[in-house]
Design brief:
- The chain is an alpha+beta fold and 234 residues long.
- The chain is built from seven helices and seven strands, in the order H-E-E-H-E-E-E-H-H-E-E-H-H-H.
- The protein folds into two domains: 2-147, Enolase-like, domain 1, CATH 3.30.390; 153-217, no CATH class.
- 38% of the residues lie in helices and 24% in strands.
- The strands form two sheets. A four-stranded antiparallel beta sheet has the order 1-2-6-7.
- A hairpin with a 5-residue loop joins strand 1 (18-24) and strand 2.
C-alpha cells in the first residue's frame, strides 16, 4: 500500500497546476494566489496509478449545503475508503461542493497534498471596484510561479537541511548498498533526480537510511547539525 500512496502523491507537471485568488489587497493591485488542481487531474491520477476499474467515489449530503465525498480504492482485499467534505461554492454552488469534496478526499490519499506546502503568495493583478467600495479580483497580471520562492522559503530551507543530512549518511554507507538504496528510492518515488524530490519523499528516504545505517553499525545514528534547520539545536 505504501508504494501506491507514494505514487498517488507524486507532484504534478507544473502546467497542470492552476491558481485562484483568495483575497485582494485594499488598493486592488495584488491578489493572494493559491495553487490547486482540478477534479479531472485527480481522476486521471487515480486512473493512472490504480486503474479505472479499481477505484470509485461516493457523495453524501450532510445538510446545510455540506457534501461529503469518499474515494474508495481496491488494493486487493476490498475497498479502502477515505472521506472529506466541502460546502457549496459562491461560483458553482452545489457543483462546486461535489468537485471540492472530491478533491479533498483525494488529498487524504496524498494527491496534490504537497501543494499545501507552497502556501499562498501575493501576485500583481487586475481588479475592479464594486459598489461596496472594495476591489474584486479580475485576473493575474504576472505568473504566480515567479512569486512562490519567498513563500516556500522555509520549505526549501528544510529540504536543503534534509538533503545535507542524507548526504552525510550516504557517505557512511558501503558504496554498493548506497547505490542500491538511491536507485530503489528513485524507483519507488517515481523520480530520476534527487534534487526533484519533495520534502516528504526526501524525509522518507532519510529515515530509511538511518535505519539502514543503524543495522549496519549496530547503533542509532544521530544526524549532523546542518545549520539550516528551522528550529536549530541549542
Amino acid at each position: 500500500m505504501s508504494d501506491v500512496v507514494k505514487a498517488l502523491a507524486k507532484p504534478f507537471d507544473q502546467d497542470m497546476i492552476k491558481w485562484r485568488a483568495q483575497a485582494v489587497t485594499k488598493d486592488g493591485t495584488k491578489a493572494l494566489a493559491l495553487a490547486y488542481i482540478d477534479s479531472r487531474a485527480v481522476m486521471n491520477r487515480l486512473d493512472e496509478i490504480i486503474g479505472p476499474a479499481f477505484w470509485q467515489c461516493d457523495h453524501r449530503g450532510c445538510g446545510d449545503g455540506l457534501l461529503a465525498a469518499g474515494i474508495g480504492i481496491d488494493l486487493g482485499e476490498g475497498y479502502i475508503w477515505k472521506w472529506d467534505g466541502a460546502g457549496e461554492t459562491k461560483v458553482e454552488g452545489e457543483k462546486g461542493a461535489f468537485s471540492d469534496s472530491f478533491k479533498r478526499a483525494g488529498v487524504k490519499w496524498g494527491i496534490g497534498r504537497y501543494l499545501y506546502d507552497m502556501g499562498a503568495t501575493w501576485v500583481p493583478c487586475k481588479s475592479w471596484k464594486g459598489d461596496d467600495g472594495k476591489y474584486h479580483f479580475s485576473e493575474f497580471t504576472a505568473d504566480p510561479w515567479n512569486y512562490t520562492n519567498g513563500q516556500v522559503k522555509d520549505v526549501t530551507k528544510e529540504w536543503s537541511a534534509l538533503y545535507k543530512k542524507v548526504q552525510a549518511i550516504l557517505k557512511k554507507i558501503e558504496p554498493g548498498q548506497r547505490n542500491i538504496a538511491i536507485e530503489t528510492w528513485h524507483k519507488e518515488s517515481g523520480i530520476t533526480d534527487s534534487h526533484k524530490s519533495t520534502k516528504m519523499q526526501l524525509a522518507a528516504f532519510h529515515d530509511n537510511l538511518k535505519e539502514m545505517l543503524a543495522i549496519q553499525t549496530g547503533r542509532e545514528y544521530e544526524d549532523v547539525h546542518t545549520g539550516l534547520e528551522t528550529d536549530p539545536k541549542p
